Structures are given as structure tokens and as C-alpha cells.
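Please complete every field before forwarding. Incomplete forms are returned to the sender.

SECTION A: IDENTIFIERS
Entry label: holo-373
Bound molecule: flavin-adenine dinucleotide
Molecule representation: SMILES string

SECTION B: INPUTS
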Amino acid sequence: MPRDFDVIVAGLGAMGSAAAFHLARSGLKVLGLDRYHPPHEQGSSHGQTRIIREAYFEHPVYVPIVQRAYELWTALEQESGQQLFIQTGGLMIGPPKGVVVRGAHTSAELHGLKYEYLSAPEIRERFPALRPARGMAGILEPRAGVLFPERCIEAHLRLARSRGTALSFGEEMVGWQLAGERVRVRTAKAEYRADRLVISAGSWLQRLVPDLEVPVTVERQILFWFEPHERSVWQSDRCPIHLWEYSDGRFFYGFPALGHGVKLARHHQGAMVDPERVSREVKPHETAALRRVTRPLLAPLGRCVMSTVCLYTNMPDGHFLIDHHPACPQVLIVSPCSGHGFKFSSAIGEIVAGLVRTGQTRFDLELFRYRER
Ligand SMILES: Cc1cc2nc3c(=O)[nH]c(=O)nc-3n(C[C@H](O)[C@H](O)[C@H](O)COP(=O)(O)OP(=O)(O)OC[C@H]3O[C@@H](n4cnc5c(N)ncnc54)[C@H](O)[C@@H]3O)c2cc1C
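SECTION C: PREDICTED COMPLEX
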């Protein structure tokens, strides 16, 4: 294994695998390190499916980035020969003045996106699996759909490797320091040097930048799969992905039945944890709590067939952190994505390659800077 690289990427999950691919594509000599064997089930990128949506309720600034991400997912599908995405449409449901419906509406209007504004009875009639309460409304966006995260990561890594990237799994970065204009990276096995270091370690970020106080928290989240009673209403041609504000500032989301059943999860409200010590066991009372929230709003579901624990890496304002280390411009921090980053990862990989090569990107990253939040 060579010891000298243009760029080292530490962490090869959603963000790091995409970064390695785009860096390799731009002709750089890249080393990718991961403490596990990605795609794996210890971090933030497992569980078979991820939502991609365009009318972004969190902030309109995300829309151009997700639009680029769509283009890059399509290109990756073509290059990898794998299906990575299915279009199902997406419904953002909640009180008309709540953050989800109002935010999705604002983004759709501002960016001239296609959408329909539906009342609760209209949603019930068109999508019988979804049973919004009277007074709720929905923004239906046609381009939303489902990405297959493990396949996406595998495709990025495979194609990065085919372009000459050295990938080392089961090799943890334990520290780094500047060495003149360059960066020296230590792992448990070796020492490497590079012009640039990309830290995309997800929930493990803080320990890799001990000199910074990143106000990041790691949140335990549970994904559940349920057996549908009436399978036909949950098929992807009749059931879009759906994201609900079911009470003030509380959210859950769901998918059509794909493979293992109907997948549902809450968005936030999980326990804050240490990624090294998080409990991976899902207790019956946790399944019951999810059922209590979703039962009044969905067609009946049968037994829970599967569940898994996954980690959100949150910034206090719910946005991302993509920025250079304030004292070391050779080091780029790319990870905390506050539980909604996967869809963007193809574009973030390209953004990383642009920042490493030229220091530039055409996207507005102001919201994602390292600063007081
Ligand atoms: C339950 C759940 C549901 C979600 N749903 C959606 C959704 O529907 N749509 C959406 O867009 N987003 C969603 N997200 C968010 C999205 O999945 C994450 O934002 C994204 O996957 C984070 O990617 P990452 O690369 O930052 O982290 P990860 O994919 O976890 O990658 C970090 C990697 O760093 C490695 N690592 C850590 N420390 C070291 C070290 N010292 N040395 C080397 N390697 C190291 C880890 O092994 C890991 O592979 C969801 C997240 C969860 C948990």
C-alpha cells in the first residue's frame, strides 16, 4: 500500500463513498479509510431505503443541491448498471401552516417545482393507505422517491476503486496533524501523508476533531417494517413516500411496501447516545409507541417483521456541516447531516471534489458553515 496521496477520505459511508468517487473521477490519487466494512449497519446509512424529495421544507437552499443529486444518481445508475432509485412521488402532510406543508409549499413555489396542494379528503381518496385527519393538507411532489442506500454506497466505492482509489476497510483513523503544508494521518496500522484530508466520519466526527467544539449530537433512531393487511394499497404505484407532521413539531415518515413490508419511522425524538455504546436492541414498548403515533393516520398494519437502530448526527439547527477546519484549510469536514443527508450525498461528493481541487462550488453552502448555531 502506498503511503502518499493527494487526498485521504476518513469514513466511507454515504458522504465519504461519494467523495472518494468524485475525487477519483477528477484524477486525484485517493486513499479511503473506514473503521468498518461499508456498507455496514453501525452508522447512519443502512436500512434498505432512503427518501429523496425536492420541495424541501427544511430550507429552499437545499433545492438546487438535490436537483444536482438527482442528476448524479441517474448517472451513477447508468455507470454502475444497478437500480439505485425508484420514483414514487412524495406527500408532505400536516397542518397547512405547519413546518412541513408550509415549508414544502414555499420551496416548490420559489423554485417553480411541479406540485399539487391536496386536502385531507383528496389524499384519502387518491391514496387509501394514508388517512390524514380533517384539517390536515398535503403537498404532493411527483419527483420524490426512494434510494437504496447500501447499493448507492457500494456503487460509489466500486467505481472509485476502478478509478484507482485505494480503499482500506477495518482501518480506523486515530489521529491527524499538519506536516508543513500537508496532512499526516495515523491509523492503528500505518501512517499516511496527503495534501488534503476529508473527514466524513458521521457520528464519530467529534473525536476526530478534538480541538474543535462541534455542537453535534448523536441520536438513536429506529426503523420498523410492518406486514401490510391490504397489500394493494401499499404498492408503490398507489402509495407515495409520505412525511407527516402529526402534531406540533413531531414527525414520522413511511414508504410503500418494498420487499420487507411497510417501513415507518419517527423523525427525531430519539435518545441522545454515544455511538460506541448505543443499544441496538429494539424493545417491544418502542414498537408500541410507534404504532400509537401512526395507527390513526394509516391503513391497518400487521405484525412488525423487522426493526433496526440507526444514528442521526445532528447539528443544533438541523442543517449540515460542510466546511474547512477553521485552523487547517487542508482539512474538510463533511458529515453531520442532521438525519436528512443521504439524498444529497451524490452531490456532496461532487462538491467535495470541487472544494478540494479549486476551493470553489457553485452551490450556496453558507448555511452549512462551521459557526455559532
Ligand atoms: C434512521 C435513519 C433514516 C434516515 N432517512 C433518511 C432519508 O429518508 N433521506 C435522507 O436523505 N437521509 C436520511 N437519513 C440521513 C442519512 O442517512 C445520513 O445523513 C447519511 O447517511 C449520513 O452519512 P455519513 O456519511 O455522514 O455517515 P455514515 O454513512 O454513517 O458514514 C460514516 C462512516 O465513517 C466511518 N468512520 C467513523 N469513524 C472513523 C474513523 N475514525 N476512521 C475511519 N472511518 C471512520 C464509519 O464506519 C462510517 O462508515 C436517515 C438516517 C437515519 C439514521
